[in-house]
Design goal:
The complex is a heterodimer. Chain A contains six helices and seven strands; from the N terminus they run E-H-E-H-E-H-E-H-E-H-E-E-H. By secondary structure, chain A is α/β, with parallel strands linked by helices. In chain A, strands 4-3-2-5-1-6-7 form a seven-stranded mixed beta sheet, with helices on both faces. In chain B, 52% of the residues are buried. The chains are: A alpha/beta, B alpha/beta. Chains A and B meet through helix 1, helix 5 and strand 7 of A and strand 5 and strand 7 of B. Strand 7 of chain A pairs parallel with strand 5 of chain B.
Chain lengths: 247, 164
């Protein structure tokens, strides 16, 4: 299974930090619990969508936050077939477990052409408006990561390509190690990766649950002029697998 | 302290990688004794100011295995990084199976069970290292490869983008 993970674009809570680091206390703004993307963040999401347009995703699973949905929208608009996202509350950011996102009847009209549905399975991951069954502590974060990976491994076949839309700390620090099959004992540092805005990573999860990280925290789609074809990945150069790619 | 790791590759890809790396001022380019290591490293050096960039075969990254990668992350890495920003050229398999995971502190147990980074040729990875071998995980990336496919490579200004 080829699991692509993307962090949301620049949100209004990210603005003002020259390093684009969203977790400095001085810039984190919780006056609004669920900030939307900035204009730049929407542009980033569009560029990421172009980059991913050659990959025909079998499913796009999206966190419940507004910035997740806006980022997914940027991707879906460039997908040729799949115009549907499923909301999984387990993809929310660490520390945001107490908030399940907007109900679909409010969010759906904001994204014409993109169908938003709750996760179709009776899983512990929940749907929009459902608060993840998870406490806000590191042990619970990792349990959530493994729960999510177990869920997608059970649901999707080994040749599936899926996209997960999530946030910085959960995506890079929790989800990536879980996708790679790493346990708490396997990493002796507090964090694995942290993602930049719309950074794309891809892990090939094998049937035995172990993963190979094809690339991590790739943001090169953000730095090219509009005239360039940024679609896809040069796997033919790499001699690596090309899951649904255009090359 | 930024450690770039380039995976060795054939000549066309190496030239693209060198041009991409020209945006970054390197204080040293070090290569392994692999078949294409030196040639790839020369492609990197070609786009640097050779007068201010050390260029050497580095024994501690030759024929990497888990033990050697672990050893490299001690004194050899510290010594290199005291120079400033350096690039290592190694075979893709050595990076993906040994060096990359070691830098990210993946355990031997996990490595023995198959956890790895993909062996992809001509890619650029960067790890921003802090004192005590810690990685600044918010500034690091693995296997960036867009420079291998775009037509106008000069348009790629940097590999790590901010939001501007």
């Amino acid at each position: 299974m080829y699991v692509y993970v993307i962090r949301h674009g620049q949100s209004r809570a990210n603005v003002g930090d020259p390093e684009n680091h969203p977790f400095l206390p001085a810039v984190r703004d919780y006056e609004e619990k669920d900030p939307s993307l900035t204009d730049l963040g929407r542009k980033q999401a569009d560029l990421a969508g172009r980059r991913l347009s050659g990959i025909d995703f079998d499913a796009i699973l999206c966190g419940p936050l507004h910035r997740h949905l806006e980022t997914a929208y940027g991707v879906v608009r460039h997908q040729k077939r799949n115009k549907e996202i499923e909301i999984l509350s387990d993809l929310t950011e660490t520390g945001d477990e107490g908030y399940g996102g907007l109900p679909i009847e409010i969010s759906q009209p904001l994204f014409p052409g993109m169908k938003i549905i709750p996760c179709s399975d009776p899983s512990p991951t929940g749907g929009p408006g459902v608060i993840p069954e998870c406490d806000a502590n590191p042990v619970a974060f990792r349990l959530r990561g493994r729960r999510l990976v177990n869920y997608i491994r059970e649901r999707f076949s080994s040749d599936s390509s899926i996209l997960l839309v999530t946030s910085c700390n959960f995506g890079g620090g929790i989800l990536m190690p879980a996708l790679l099959g790493l346990t708490d004992r396997d990493i002796d540092t507090g964090k694995f990766f942290e993602f930049n805005n719309t950074a794309i990573s891809m892990v090939h999860v094998k049937d035995d649950g172990r993963g190979t990280a094809a690339f991590v925290n790739d943001v090169t789609h953000l730095i090219l002029p509009d005239s360039e074809n940024i679609e896809g990945y040069p796997f033919s150069y790499l001699g690596y697998f090309a899951p649904g790619g255009n090359n | 302290m930024k450690l770039y790791i380039i995976t060795d590759c054939d000549a066309p890809a190496a030239d693209r990688t060198g041009r991409q790396m020209s945006r970054i001022k390197l204080d040293g380019v070090f290569y392994s004794s692999s078949r294409r290591g030196k040639a790839t490293a020369e492609s990197i050096l070609k786009y640097q100011n050779a007068d201010n960039c050390r260029f050497e075969l580095l024994e501690s990254i030759c024929s990497l295995d888990g033990e050697k990668a672990e050893a490299f992350m001690g004194a050899p890495a510290e010594s290199l990084l005291s120079m400033g920003t350096v690039a290592l050229v190694v075979p893709a398999e050595d990076f993906g199976q040994h060096l990359g995971p070691k830098i990210m502190h993946v355990s031997d147990r996990a490595l023995s069970e198959g956890v790895q980074f993909a062996a992809a040729e001509g890619t650029i990875s960067m790890f921003e290292l802090k004192k005590g071998e810690q990685v600044d995980s918010s500034n690091s990336f693995v296997n960036a490869s867009l420079h291998l496919k775009v037509s106008d490579i000069e348009a790629i200004k940097d590999l790590r983008l901010s939001c501007e």
